[in-house]
């Protein structure tokens, strides 16, 4: 039996799975505590920022949602004009209200279009995990949506007026229902066998969408995703990140350790992905900076965040191996932090697999 963590051919002793599980728990907890310390000492997370790169070839596509009002999506058509091949590109925790991060920070959408793939880039959803939440986000008893917390850092927004949005997030429903059928009815896009990928929290969201909507998504990609959200310390790490990214309250998203929380955990729903035979591309880098990652706090923070994503992703890989899943490709580059240059590189590596498994 091959180890999920290397190429050792030595047989595992009977208690090896137990030791592996204990190692995973210790490693996740240790890395999580390091990330918590990083977030507490300097509540930030703006990793590898860049100027907006508005693409005039893409267009705004507005769709009404049941509870969130009109939602903008940016669409870039496939170079050959086909409507059969479609991929959704999900943003991360710091999603903005004007453009999707893939358009702001990378040229991935243009590359996808050149491969004759229609690119769907939802805009907004800061700290949402693209999930259907339990309630509008309230924090410290301050009503949601009453202050300046819709953008910027929640560390100051909480003190200056009020966190979150005034409405309940229903992003999963929007992506699976409202947007999906609007794309079919208004643009003629194929609503089935689409692809979906995302970075960080968008990576875990991509797997969630594929796990529960296999007719819509035949392919899912996760870059630096948090794929073991129920591991020790993970909920509190997510809590701090969401406070900073707009002042959102994780308890408004899902109660601790209840069915809704577990439903969002890729480690838990891994059997769905195997049963659906969803083609997966799963990546996380080492956390070691590249030559393009400058000597600054953003790089240090990106190193810690990527280390946590790597441990989560390795745990997910081990879980999939235990279940006998052979439907995933894994990428663990030697260099890379939690940053857009890392995710652009992974998206380019993913492209042939994505192209072969949609439409």
Q: Could you explain the architecture of this structure?
A:
The protein has 359 residues and is α/β, with parallel strands linked by helices. It has a single domain, classed as 3-Layer(aba) Sandwich (Rossmann fold), CATH 3.40.50.1820. It is built from twelve helices and eight strands. An eight-stranded mixed β-sheet has the order 1-2-4-3-5-6-7-8, sandwiched between helices. Helix 10 crosses helix 11. The model is unreliable at 1-14, 31-52 and 148-162 (pLDDT under 50).
Task: Give the gist of this structure.
The chain is of the alpha/beta class and 359 residues long. Helices cover 41% and strands 13% of the residues.
The secondary-structure element order is HEEEHHEHHEHEHHHHEHEH
In terms of DSSP E residues, the strand content is 5-15%
Which CATH architecture?
3-Layer(aba) Sandwich
- Structural class label: alpha/beta
The gross shape turns out to be: globular
Instruction: Indicate the multimeric state.
Output: single chain
Rg, alpha carbons: 19 Å
Residue share in helix? 40-55%
- Tell me, rounded to a whole number, the average pLDDT: 84
Quick one: CATH class?
Answer: Alpha Beta
Indicate the CATH topology.
Rossmann fold
Instruction: Record the strand order, biggest sheet.
Output: 1-2-4-3-5-6-7-8
Count helical runs.
12
Q: Low-confidence spans: pLDDT under 50, at least 5 residues?
A: 1-14, 31-52, 148-162
Count of domain modules: 1
What composes the largest sheet? 8 strands, mixed
Question: What is the count of β-strands?
Answer: 8
């Amino acid at each position: 039996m091959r180890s999920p963590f290397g190429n050792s051919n030595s047989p595992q002793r009977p208690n090896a799975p137990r030791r592996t599980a204990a190692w995973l728990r210790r490693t996740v907890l240790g890395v999580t505590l390091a990330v918590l310390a990083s977030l507490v000492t300097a509540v930030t997370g703006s990793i590898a920022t860049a100027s907006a790169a508005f693409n005039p070839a893409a267009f705004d596509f507005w769709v009404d949602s049941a509870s969130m009002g009109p939602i903008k999506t940016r669409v870039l058509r496939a170079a050959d004009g086909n409507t059969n091949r479609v991929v959704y590109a999900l943003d991360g925790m710091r999603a903005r209200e004007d453009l999707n991060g893939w358009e702001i920070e990378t040229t991935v959408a243009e590359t996808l279009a050149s491969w004759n793939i229609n690119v769907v880039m939802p805009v907004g959803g800061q700290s949402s995990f693209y999930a259907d939440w339990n309630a509008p986000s309230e924090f410290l008893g301050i009503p949601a949506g009453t202050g300046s917390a819709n953008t910027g850092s929640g560390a100051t927004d909480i003190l200056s007026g009020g966190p979150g949005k005034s409405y309940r997030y229903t992003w999963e429903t929007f992506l699976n229902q409202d947007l999906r059928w609007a794309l079919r009815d208004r643009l003629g896009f194929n609503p089935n066998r689409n692809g979906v990928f995302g970075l960080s929290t968008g990576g875990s969201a991509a797997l969630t969408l594929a796990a529960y909507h296999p007719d819509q998504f035949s392919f899912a990609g996760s870059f630096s995703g948090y794929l073991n959200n129920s591991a020790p310390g993970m909920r509190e790490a997510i809590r701090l990140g969401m406070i900073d990214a707009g002042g959102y309250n994780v308890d408004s998203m899902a109660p601790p350790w209840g069915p809704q929380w577990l439903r969002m955990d890729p480690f838990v729903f891994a059997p769905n992905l195997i049963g659906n035979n969803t083609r997966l591309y799963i990546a996380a880098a080492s956390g070691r900076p590249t030559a393009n990652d400058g000597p600054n706090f953003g790089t240090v923070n990106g190193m810690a965040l990527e280390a946590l994503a790597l441990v989560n992703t390795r745990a997910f890989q081990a879980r999939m191996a235990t279940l006998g899943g052979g439907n995933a490709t894994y990428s663990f580059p030697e260099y890379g932090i939690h940053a857009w240059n890392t995710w652009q590189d992974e998206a380019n590596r993913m492209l042939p697999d994505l192209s072969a498994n949609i439409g």
